[in-house]
């Protein structure tokens, strides 16, 4: 498990972003809306059909995924959780309505049909890859335990150009995570590494 000090450093990092840039992609440390939406487009593939579903969003920021989902689905319930109190307060301030709930937490707080996590694994600050990898695993277990049908997450890729890589970021080996998900969670796993960002998305379907 990751310790409280690290979680509070991660929280401070993102709190400073939302304080500086407000409810915009930069406020959650993305470059722009195009990349943010492209990530959601991958994660959304975990959702099957158009009927009512429930979804958890770990590391929800100001709730941009909710904004994205209402453009594509009519009937769903959404629970966002975020380690940063400032993020949650901004998300609540967006007044998304009854369907969207937000809570400050580094864990998921309910079982839903699906769970997703976008950008949660990227900024490791000064943690070693080994320590961060253990944290990623504990979060994946949480996603799995909180999802009835499936879950999806993204990570920066170890296939990034070396000259662009930064020490405070975590670059995951997609093959290792694919293997881990197959062996630990389900036989039905998709790996997507074809959407022109320096990252990949994995979808785990339970059936
Ligand atoms: C890169 S931002 C992405 C926000 C949102 N998912 C989006 O795509 O717009 C990552 C978010 O995850 C939150 N976060 C980071 N680590 C977390 C953790 N362990 N538990 C919950 N939230 C976390 C941060 O506070 C931040 O709001």
Give an overview in words.
The protein is built from 6 helices and 8 strands, in the order ααβαβαββαββαββ. The protein has a single domain (4-205), classed as 3-Layer(aba) Sandwich (Rossmann fold), CATH 3.40.50.150. Strands 1, 2, 3, 4, 5, 6, 7 and 8 form an 8-stranded mixed sheet that branches. With 207 residues, it is an alpha/beta fold. Helix content is 35%, strand content 24%. The two termini are 28 Å apart. The chain has helices at 4-21, 33-43, 64-70, 85-93, 129-145, 174-184, and strands spanning 53-58, 76-82, 100-104, 112-117, 147-157, 171-172, 188-192, 199-205. The mean pLDDT is 97. The protein binds S-adenosylmethionine (SAM). S-adenosylmethionine (SAM) is lined by residues 10, 14, 28-29, 36, 58-61, 64, 81-84, 87, 106, 118-120.
How many independent structural domains?
1
Largest sheet, in brief, is:
8 strands, mixed
Mean pLDDT level: 97
**CATH T-level fold name:** Rossmann fold
SS-based class: alpha/beta
Shape: globular
Q: Radius of gyration over alpha carbons?
A: 16 Å
How do the helices and strands follow one another from N- to C-terminus?
HHEHEHEEHEEHEE
Hetero groups in this structure are: S-adenosylmethionine
CATH architecture, by name, is 3-Layer(aba) Sandwich
Write the layout of secondary structure elements.
Layout: H1 4-21, H2 33-43, E1 53-58, H3 64-70, E2 76-82, H4 85-93, E3 100-104, E4 112-117, H5 129-145, E5 147-157, E6 171-172, H6 174-184, E7 188-192, E8 199-205
Helix pairs in contact: 1-4
Residues 10, 14, 28-29, 36, 58-61, 64, 81-84, 87, 106, 118-120 line the site of S-adenosylmethionine (SAM).
